[in-house]
Amino acid sequence: MASASDGWKLFLPYLSFIFVILYFTHSHFVTKLFIGSETVRIKKTPDLPLRFRSDGTFKILQVADMHFGSGIITSCRDVLDSDFEYCSDLNTTRFLKRLIEAENPDFVAFTGDNIFGPSTTDAAESMFKAFGPAMESGLPWAAVLGNHDQESTMNREELMSLISLMDYSVSQVNPWSDGLPNPTQHGITSNIDGFGNYHLRVYGAPGSMLANSSIMNLYFLDSGDRAVYQGKRTYGWIKESQLNWLRNVAIEFQAQKRDPLPFSDAFPPPAPPALAFFHIPIPETRQLFYQEIVGEFQEGVACSSVNSGVLKTFVSMGDVKAVFMGHDHKNDFCGNLDGIWFCYGGGFGYHAYGKAGWPRRARIILAELQKGQSSWMGVEKIRTWKRLDDEKFSRIDEQILWDSRLSR
User: Fold this and answer.
1) 46-406 architecture in CATH?
2) Residue 329 near residue 353, CB atoms below 8 Å
3) Of the candidates 98, 100, 89, 101, which has an alpha carbon nearest to the alpha carbon of residue 65?
4) Where are the domains of the chain?
C-alpha cells in the first residue's frame, strides 16, 4: 500500500509537467499565432491617444516623397558625385533615422509617394523598408498615398490596408463612421472616394484641464494619382464626397464641449485648430508664385486641371490653419491662401528627382499650448521649419503659421 510520501513523489513531477505545458502554450500560442508554417505577428500599437507633452508641445515630422525603390540596389537621382561615394535608398533611410533621433518628434506624417512603384517588384517589401525607421522608433505615424505608390504590385486599397496594419501606424484605409451620417460597411464609411481619408485627434497635455479633450485635429486626404477629365489626362484631385466627410468631421469637432475656464466672455475659448495632409497640391497653389512666400519656388505646380473647391471648403470650415503637401520636389515653400498656409515638404528621398547640390529636406511642425494660471490650455501657436540633410543638419526658414492671439 502506497504511503502519503509516495503520493507526493508522484504528484510533484506531474505538477512540473503541467507547469511546463502551460508555459509552452503561453509563450508559443498566446503571444504568437500559427497558420500553417507561417508566424503571424501581432501589430505593435503606440501609446494612444495622441497628446501634447507635459511641456505643452506637440511636434510633427513631415516626410514628403521618399520614392523608395528596392534598397541598396536602387540608385540616387540628381546628386553630386563629389557628395557621395555611393548613393542609394539607404541614404533615404539614414536621413529618416537622423531626423527622428535629432528632432525627437511626437508623430511622423508621410505625405505620399512613399515608394516609387516602377523601381520595385515587391510593393509590400519596399513599404516595410521605407517605413522601417518609423516602426523601429516606436513613434505613432500615419501616411497618405501619392501618385506613384500603386505603380507596382499592389493597388491603392491594398497599400492603405497594409500601411494601417504596420507597427505603430495609426493610418486608416478610410474613416470609421464615428457617429457621422454616412452609410457604412462594418463601421467604415463606404461612400467616400479614394483610400486614406481619416482624421486623428490630439489631446491636451497630461494632468492639464484639457487632458481629456481633443484640442487639435489632423486631417488626412487621398488626393488620388492620375485621372482623365474631359478627354485629357490630369493628376487626381480631392472629390466632393471627401469634402462632405471633412465638413461633417469639422462640425462635430468644433461642437464638442470644452471647459471655458479660464476664458472670459470677452475671450471665449478658441476653436481647436486643424492641420491637413495630402500629396497633390491644389490649383490655387500656382498663385503663390506672385506672392510673398517662405522658401523656394523652383518648379511649376503639378496639380489637377480640376478645381474641386478644396480651398473654399477649408475656408468655410474655419479650423484648418495649415496644409502640408508634397509632389513637387524642388518646391519647399510656405505661402498663404485666404488665411491658410500651404506648405511643401520639399524632396526627401534620394531616388526621387531633385536638384543636384540642393540637399534633401524635411519639414518640422511644432504646436505649442497656451499657459493658463495653473494648467496648459488650448493651442496657442503653430510654427514650422525645415531640416536639410547636409553636414550641419541645417535648420532653415523658421516661421509662425498661426497664433491664436492674433486671430481673436
Assistant:
1) 4-Layer Sandwich (3.60)
2) yes
3) 89
4) 8-42, 46-406
C-alpha cell belonging to residue 96: 529618416
Phi, psi of 128 (to 5 degrees): -65, -40
Single-letter code of the amino acid located at 355: K
DSSP-derived letter for residue 5 is: H
Contacts of 405 (CB under 8 A, 6+ apart): 380
All residue ranges of the chain with pLDDT < 70 are 1-40, 177-190, 256-270, 408
3-state secondary structure of 3: coil
All 3 cell numbers of residue 163? Answer: 500601411
In 10 A of CB 248, how many CB atoms?
Answer: 17
Query: How do strand 226-229 and strand 184-185 relate by DSSP bridges?
Result: unpaired
Q: Which three cell numbers stand for residue 293?
A: 512666400
Q: In what order do the strands lie in the sheet with 141-144?
A: 141-144, 107-111, 57-63, 361-371, 376-388, 395-403
Contact at 8 Å (CB) between 286 and 24?
no
Task: Give backbone dihedrals phi and psi of 190, rounded to 5 degrees, phi first.
Answer: -105, -15
Q: What is the pLDDT of residue 100?
A: 98
